[in-house]
Fold this protein.
Amino acid sequence: MWFRNLQLFRLGRAFDLSAEALDSRLRKQTFQGCGRMDLVASGWVSPLGRHGEQLVHAANGYFMICSRKAEKIIPATVIRQLLDDRVAEVEASESRDVYRREKLRMKDEIMVDLLPRALTRNTDLFAYIDTRTGYVVVDTPTPSRAEDLISQIRSTLGSFKATPVQVKRSCMNTMTQWLNGDRRLPPGLDLGDECELTHTDPSHGIVSCRHQDLTAGEVRNHIKGGKYATRLAIRWKERLSCVLHDDLSIKRLRFEDVIHEAEGDTDADDPATRFDLDFSLMTLELSDFLPQLLEALGGEELEEQAA
């Protein structure tokens, strides 16, 4: 349940639905799976999986939700081989060429034939809504997948204004200044041991540093040579670590032992209680970390300020 990647969104207005009302809305689009002739299907499931029935897990003003996507697996190589076989058969038996339009029709017929027998792959995507501060946090490394989930919420609720979080300063410039010593990291934040430096001219290449002292002179030499930080590992108060990207994506999020020790000190025998405890601990840490990170990046650029 612990999130590993974060995509951050800002609600355009206060979220005024209760957990019960949100659950009722989500039930109108619960996950039903793929039908015989469906290639893709999606819907809402319980965040607790088989251990829960509610589609919203609420704790301290945080609402956890989960979207499930089912996809039929039909390898392109299989379709291409069957199509080649069918084209060859027609050309041999009828002594004629098969052209593009007929090939497309054959390909559609092959898909129709394979769909009912195809295997299905399910993928779950978790997110939580912070009803107090107006953030939506999606656990995915891919911005497009996060946008898809926001669109799914919007489709379910009819209206859901949420946009990616923006900051007042360039994230790339700020990370570069931290590495170069031009700007101090605020108390609690420290450099990790990994970064990626990219030059504005693609011909100058990309430098990836791993397991390295980022205050070393060779890192600063790359910056003096015109490279900018597009990815930077950071640590926060010895409680969590992550890799910050220049698009404000947070990846490879890891909660340190001090957090998991607190988890282990509490009795939680059943899966539902354990899930609730983990969720509470995670959101407590992120509710402290995220505002401080955004402030370190120049503060959040709110929509009315941008206007």
